[in-house]
Design goal:
Elements lengths: L7 H13 L3 H65 L14 E6 L5 E14 L2 E13 L2 E13 L6 E5 L3 E3 L4 E3 L1 E4 L3 E3 L2 E2 L3 E3 L3 E4 L7 E4 L1 E2 L8 E2 L7 H4 L3 H10 L3 E3 L11 E5 L4 E14 L9 E16 L6 E4 L3 E7 L2 E6 L11 E9 L7 E6 L3 E2 L7 E10 L4 E2 L20 E13 L6 E4 L2 E12 L2 H5 L13 E7 L1
Parallel strand pairs: 5-8, 5-28, 6-9, 7-10, 7-30, 8-11, 9-14, 11-15, 16-20, 17-21, 20-22, 21-23, 22-24, 23-25, 24-26, 25-27, 26-28, 28-30
Antiparallel strand pairs: 1-2, 2-3, 3-4, 4-31, 12-13, 17-18, 18-19, 29-30
């Protein structure tokens, strides 16, 4: 009988396994724990790596941000440097080198060393050979991080009257129907019964409000029933109208010798001469010689009614003229009538600087609009005396531009349909019109008026007036537009 002998090798193997892991369940748990430790260590290392990477990126971003902000300050320093340079060297566009730019301005660290450099490009904007404004581009680079330069652009010029909706020298009354957008200033007193969304300022602390303003008593510089009183200011700085007055003789010379358009004094009696200018959307202007006008009685003060000759009866076309881009100035030694669609920037002047016995007017004969309202088109009309809207103006009228009455007044005279001063019957329907919208600026030495009332009842002019200044013209006005200040400053500042 054979006996089966146990396999001692298998028993030894089992015993070895039991020795290594006497409890199989415990061994399984130990394996899981090891795997969890490894997993958690991996997660921890991943999180730590992410945090570390984030910290490094934040530090890198902080250094970049610091360099960018420092570059902006350096670019601004470049602008301020050249403003200082121009104050001491007016009109010098080459940084005193006589050579083309760009020019390098080094910004020093007060504690030693340099912070960076600004690269300056300077360009003059000229008309008729005369600099109107200076554009300065400053590219700042910080030594802390040269990879993040910043570039600033600024326009350096005297602030233009185009920054105002109205700029007046005399006392004025803005009625309750007025809706004024933009700054409104007078060297005289202001009765503001209309609506304003910007500053209304008077150079006076108090004034005696006369009967013409409906209140014969002492009032604040600005007073009235208007809702915008939070923006009213008394004792504001007076505007120097003598400084505003551009040299008309110089403008005549620029038009004659600088490439502009010049029209000599027309022949004939004072009642039948002048020039009619019809602007066209293609950048040209039809110029006609006025050979006949219609006389009607109109009053600038509501009491006296002299005969005026602002309605054209006959005219002769002289030609169609392209407005020169390098000298967009039209000078007439006579009266002018202006209307049409203006393309580009142009200035029209009606003056007789060599004849002290006459002071011609500019007459806004009809609607004036721009070919584009993006700032590329603009019109300034300057008169040695008055800027007037005639009796035969449109019922709903819209005019865009900067209108300057240097020694006279801006307005539409008072007309009547009855009494000894009545207008011819065929013009009765023109006496009372509906609405006048003005987009731009009115500059007037005398008191303005486009609406007339009698005992509070509307009797002549425009029943509703809407006024808004043109911000784009303020930063880039037509050539030779008068300045509101003798001080130069940055009127435009932006990052490129």
């Amino acid at each position: 009988m054979r006996h089966q002998t146990p396999d001692t090798r298998d028993r030894k193997t089992d015993e070895s396994a039991v020795a290594r892991c006497p409890l199989p369940i415990a061994c399984a748990q130990a394996g899981v724990t090891t795997m969890m430790v490894i997993a958690f260590m991996g997660i921890f290392l991943l999180i730590m790596g992410t945090i570390t990477s984030y910290a490094f990126e934040q530090a890198k971003y902080g250094r970049a941000l610091y360099g960018r902000e420092q570059a902006l300050a350096i670019a601004e320093s470049g602008l301020e440097y050249y403003r200082w340079f121009l104050a001491h060297n007016p009109g010098n566009l080459t940084n005193g080198t006589g050579l083309p730019g760009p020019y390098t301005y080094t910004v020093n660290d007060p504690e030693g060393g340099t912070l960076g450099n600004a690269s300056l490009t300077v360009t003059g904007n000229s008309q008729c050979g005369v600099i109107q404004s200076i554009d300065i581009t400053s590219r700042g680079t910080s030594n802390a991080n040269v990879g993040f330069p910043r570039t600033l652009f600024a326009r350096y010029m005297r602030p233009s009257v185009a920054a105002y909706s109205y700029l007046l020298k005399s006392n004025v009354w803005a009625g309750p129907d007025r809706n004024i957008t933009g700054r409104y200033h007078s060297n005289g007193g202001i009765r503001m019964d209309g609506t304003n969304n910007s500053d209304v300022s008077s150079a006076l602390t108090t004034w005696t409000c006369d009967a013409g303003s409906g209140c014969p008593s002492t009032k604040n510089g600005v007073f009235g029933a208007g809702p915008g009183f939070a923006l009213w200011y008394n004792s504001a700085a007076s505007v120097d109208f003598a400084g505003i007055a551009t040299s008309l003789a110089s403008l005549k010379t620029y038009a004659q010798t600088g490439g502009g358009l010049y029209f000599a004094s027309s022949t004939g009696s004072v009642t039948s001469r002048g020039y009619h200018m019809l602007f066209k959307s293609n950048g040209t202007v039809d110029v006609s010689r006025v050979t006949g006008t219609v006389g009607v009685k109109g009053s600038a003060d509501g009491s006296t009614f002299p005969t005026e000759y602002n309605i054209i009866a006959n005219k002769t076309l002289l030609g169609n003229y392209t407005i020169p881009a390098s000298c967009s100035l039209i000078f007439a030694d006579d009266r002018v009538w202006v209307e049409g669609v203006v393309k580009g920037k142009v200035t029209v002047v009606a003056a007789t600087p060599s004849d002290t016995g006459t002071s011609p007017d500019a007459i806004i004969a009809n609607n004036i609009t721009y070919a584009a309202n993006d700032g590329t088109s603009g019109l300034t009309v300057m008169s040695e005396r008055n800027v007037l809207i005639p009796l035969t103006s449109p019922d709903i009228m819209e005019i865009h531009g900067i209108f300057v009455a240097q020694s006279g007044y801006y307005g539409r005279n008072h007309y009547t349909t009855s009494g000894n001063n009545e207008v011819p019957s065929q013009y009765d329907s023109y006496v009372m019109q509906t609405q006048l919208t003005t987009v731009g600026t009115i500059v007037s030495a005398g008191r303005t008026g486009t609406k007339w009332t009698n005992g509070g009842v509307f009797v002549s002019g425009y029943a509703t007036r809407v006024d808004a200044y043109d911000q784009l013209q303020a930063m880039n006005p037509p050539p030779f537009t008068p300045s509101a200040s003798t001080d130069y400053s940055f009127v435009l500042w932006r990052e490129q």
